[in-house]
């Protein structure tokens, strides 16, 4: 690897465990034989960023100023590109891009890239995430533009997903494994070909269960994009 490494900045803290998971998956996806082969990462684990879903639902403070504060901090540290370990926060993607002077590696583009590359035959796509993701239609439009049929959870299922997500944020991963398996099974029963885990907390359950349906782990997809960018340049998904 060249001595002048690309520096990647990660806006983290949304939540901390998901940020750690992204770091771990970047390490796993980096072809390295020694310390010096790994990427130069700078992580701002900014746990002051307000809850994204609360804001989208009209119940909380705007997270964007806090996210931009992290972005400016990372820019000042000399990063070449910035990413975020949070799907819901990507409702601010265009605002972030307008305020930074470095590249932005999108988790949404990364997921779409993974879906196209790994599950090219998939037609029916299940989507699991926060109420913020569903309310903002973050994935709906790009998926439908590409001809996919969407399988979205019922209101009751959304509530159950949120309980699982916030339990994981509280560090209670093992306590929600049974419920997570039930939720994954629901998407299989609905004949989804693939399930997008569109919340970076959800893939944490994969350490404890074998999903009954193929999944796109959004954290893993972003990690692959980060490594690809750092080693070869980020390849954007064509429109």
From TrEMBL:
GO terms for molecular function: amino-acid racemase activity. InterPro entries: Asp/Glu/hydantoin_racemase, Asp/Glu_race, Asp/Glu_racemase_AS_2, Asp_race. Keywords: Isomerase. PANTHER family: ASPARTATE-GLUTAMATE RACEMASE FAMILY, GLUTAMATE RACEMASE. Belongs to the aspartate/glutamate racemases family. This is Aspartate racemase. It comes from Coprothermobacter proteolyticus (strain ATCC 35245 / DSM 5265 / OCM 4 / BT).
């Amino acid at each position: 690897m060249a001595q002048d490494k690309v520096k990647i900045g990660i806006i983290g803290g949304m939540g901390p465990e998901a940020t750690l998971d992204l770091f771990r998956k970047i390490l796993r996806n980096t072809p390295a034989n020694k310390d010096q082969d790994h990427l130069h990462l700078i992580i701002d684990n900014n746990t002051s960023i307000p809850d994204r879903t609360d804001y989208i639902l009209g119940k909380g403070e705007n997270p964007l100023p806090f996210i931009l504060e992290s972005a400016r901090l990372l820019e000042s540290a000399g990063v070449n590109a910035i990413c975020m370990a949070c799907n819901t926060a990507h409702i601010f993607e265009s605002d972030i891009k307008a305020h930074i002077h470095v590249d932005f590696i999108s988790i949404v583009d990364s997921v779409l890239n993974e879906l196209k590359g790994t599950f090219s035959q998939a037609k029916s796509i299940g989507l699991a995430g926060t109420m913020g993701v569903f309310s903002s239609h973050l994935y709906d439009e790009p998926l439908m533009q590409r001809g996919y049929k969407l399988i979205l959870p019922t209101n009751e299922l959304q509530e159950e997903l949120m309980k699982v997500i916030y339990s994981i944020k509280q560090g209670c991963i093992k306590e929600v494994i049974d419920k997570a398996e039930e939720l994954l099974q629901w998407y299989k029963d609905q004949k989804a070909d693939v399930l997008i885990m569109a919340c970076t907390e959800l893939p944490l359950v994969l350490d404890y269960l074998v999903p009954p349906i193929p999944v796109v782990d959004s954290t893993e997809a972003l990690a692959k994009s980060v490594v690809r960018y750092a080693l070869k340049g980020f390849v954007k998904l064509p429109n």
